[in-house]
Amino acid sequence: MVRDVIQFANMLVMVRLLTPADYGAFALAQSIIGLLSVFSFASFVSHALQMRDPADVDWQAHFTAAAAINVAIMMIGLAVATVLYHTEQFAQAALPLAGLSLVFLIEIPSTLRDKMLLTQHNWSRSAYLPIIGTLLGCGVGIAIAILGGGYWALVLPVLLFGVPAAIDLLLVAKWRPDWSWSWPRYQETAKFGVTLMGSAGLWRARLATEQHVLAGTYDMSTLGIYSRSVGLATLLAGRIGTIITGSLFPVLTRAERGSIQFRRYAGLVLRGVSWATIPAAAFLAICAIDVVTLLYGDKWSSVIPLIPFAVAGVALIGISSASTSMILANSDVRLCLLLDFFSAVVGVILAFWLIPMGVAAYLAGLVGHGALVMTASLFLLWTRNGISAQSIADAFAPSIVATAAGLIALLLARTAFGSTAPLVLRIAFEALAMGVVYVITLRLLFAPTLRELVNVAPGSKRLMRMLFPETAVA
Questions:
Q1: What is the mean pLDDT of residues 269-283?
Q2: 7, 260, 365, 438: most buried by Cβ count inside 10 Å?
Q3: Domain ranges of the chain
Q4: Exposed, middle or buried, 389 (CB in 10 Å: 0-12/13-18/19+)?
Q5: What is the pLDDT of residues 104-149, one digit of tens each?
Q6: Intra-chain end-to-end CA distance of the chain, in Å
Q7: What's the angle, vertex CA 171, arms to CA 67 and CA 5, rounded to 5?
Q8: Helix, strand, or coil here: 426?
Q9: Is-contact 256 125, C-beta < 8 A?
Q10: In whole angstroms, what is the distance from residue 222 CA to residue 303 CA?
């Protein structure tokens, strides 16, 4: 969450220094890198988090495989960049793609260190190394943007992000590879990695198709406007599920699959994701004009009509992503592949069908896509005994009711505050009104469900004293 706040502040500066074309060229290059990253060793090293005993992880085999895999992928990225450079329509994305290809080298030690820390449940170190990388990248990016570096202000932060973790592994922990590798030791990891690679590949292929159809049908500026609408929606509402499940995944995998403990964990995670995502998405959809004007400025006004569609689709996908992560934590890897195949096929069909009708039409289609995928992922999680039906109801019904009450409070606050007040104060007042009524509604109508979630939340003792003072006194 700290990283997102830093990146949010960085975005406020960047959108005033860079053009939609800069963002479009970077988005196209990043979509290709995302597709190539599916085949990187990151898909294989994730197997370390699935293992119930961290002592069973063969880190040396992971590093040796990483060196072979990622160097080859980097060369492929450079080759694709060369091809793009000699095209007319996509030449702008060639140099950003070449620069981003170097991330596969940095990824070898940085990702290995990240997974080491997560399997050890070394939460503090696994948190502050990415924060340092984010600060380093944002600082350099802003400096380059001020100097007129264009899309390089977006490329270099991606490369710098993993540098602190790489330094921590090689210089601080003084870990050294011995280049050992054995197929019998790596066989289970390879099987998991290939399956996960299929899931990630389908998702990335859909995104790459989306980016290329948008750029081909319109231009880089249109792609940049689309990416900023989705980017703002993701930052304010869609990232919540990724943050929560990403942070708690190493804990989820310690519970036996299908157990009472796992179902309880899954219910609490889904509740936390939904209760945070739904009101955030509703607030951004209602306040799109004010938020975009404040954060992006007048030159990005084309983003405003896209925000309601973008935030609805992103929120639904964020919740479904959390559900899919819990399916994976429940060791149903093949089921994740099936679900991702379904999502990718529908997404590609929508891209070719709706993008020529307009960006807004495509985003509206993605709302339906998100609802369909979320429903399917929750149904599959339930059928595999990964969550109870009651937990699913507890994740959605209270939040929907409380969000409706909060939106009424927001509209009343908007009427009372008026439109002449400074923009930042108006947004803050409306957010406060909605947030307070949202929490009060949960406390009055859904107290037992709220209490259960608060008990496991960060700062639970303080929250309990605020929301349930009678319990604290007792």
A1: 94
A2: 438
A3: 1-192, 218-474
A4: exposed
A5: 999 999 989 988 888 888 888 888 899 999 999 989 999 998 988 8
A6: 34
A7: 85
A8: helix
A9: no
A10: 10
